[in-house]
Amino acid sequence: MQASLFRIFRGASLTTTTAAASFTATATAGATTAKTLSGSTVLRKLSEYSVYQQLNEDTNATKYTYKLLQLPSKILNQLESKSTNLYIKSDINSLALCTDSETFKLRQMNHSNTVLLLNKEPDNKLIGFQKTSYEYELTEIKGSIDTSDIPIFNGQTAQQPIDLIALEDNSICSHQEFLSNWYELGGCEIDNGAYIMSADIITELLYLLITKLMSLQVHEFSPEDVSSIITPPYNDSMLTSIIHKFCTIESEKYQLNDLKITQWFGIVEMSKINHKMTDISEFLLNWKTSLPSFYNPPLDISQLAGYYCSPIENKILYVDPESLSENLSQRFKELFELDKSWNYDEFIPFIKKFVPAGKKVDSIILNLS
């Protein structure tokens, strides 16, 4: 068994030298030296402590590997209260710890300090398990779903779709974040398989939902009130996803989210004019007529910021943000190739997701201009 001798200075840092065997080093207040089993001497006036560090467990015993993990207050509070379960999830690139509603990414933090695991028992005893050159820390992140293997449903099902429960288990996100992201994607379940509805399917089912509510002349509704619109190829899971994506809930009743709905229909309509400059007045008319009858929310071109540019006054050009580079510098170049003189409010949505928390977007623009 290998052990290490620690010179312990009250209020000072710790340094180590290696000894050949286990030992106990003691020093009495007022004394000037302390002997170790190897015969070396520690020169200092120290209070009395008993120190022991075990680097390797007995070969006949069950072996453990100890790691140091810094716990954020949110995690620590939940562990102490035992109010929720914690889940460890991973993919090929990352490892995360999830609560029911939050996701924390784990990373290794290297350092050159000496770290001891200590026991809070008697004041005259310090028990250390291992000297370590790194610790793990948890950083809160937004949970996400990897959609690369999820088939798009446009009326036809896939042969071997991924199971929805397996998809959640393999997603780096908490349960609540998974549901929120899943509905936002237009996710649904068909024959126990996970699918994402195509834009056409979402538009058709949303149109039917609004038309049904207009005929009922109600502002609040429950899923049961509109279940009659479910006919093949639609199912309950699809309707649930549409309701959560385009409605708000209050007192267990749903209401249409006019802004999200008009944005959706506006983006769909704008995508039809791809690579073609269009008068704003003409587009607004087409946008209005694309909505269900008797549904008259306010429309403004600014609601679609992040999907168009205006290189010529009173005209717009559709810009698909998914077609732009994920490299911010390259994205800047592509955007200014589309429009040499951007309106500030129309430009910001294209780069907002690249701005680190706590940093001003204007400083990013100045650095890249």
UniProtKB/TrEMBL annotation:
Signal sequence extent: 1-20
One BP annotation, GO: DNA replication
Keyword annotations from UniProtKB, A to Z: DNA replication, Signal
GO cellular component, one term: Ctf18 RFC-like complex
InterPro entries: Dcc1
Keyword Signal among UniProt keywords: yes
UniProt xrefs under PANTHER family: SISTER CHROMATID COHESION PROTEIN DCC1, SISTER CHROMATID COHESION PROTEIN DCC1-RELATED
Sequence similarity: Belongs to the DCC1 family.
Name of this chain's protein: Sister chromatid cohesion protein DCC1
Annotated source species: Rhizopus delemar
Lineage: Eukaryota, Fungi, Fungi incertae sedis, Mucoromycota, Mucoromycotina
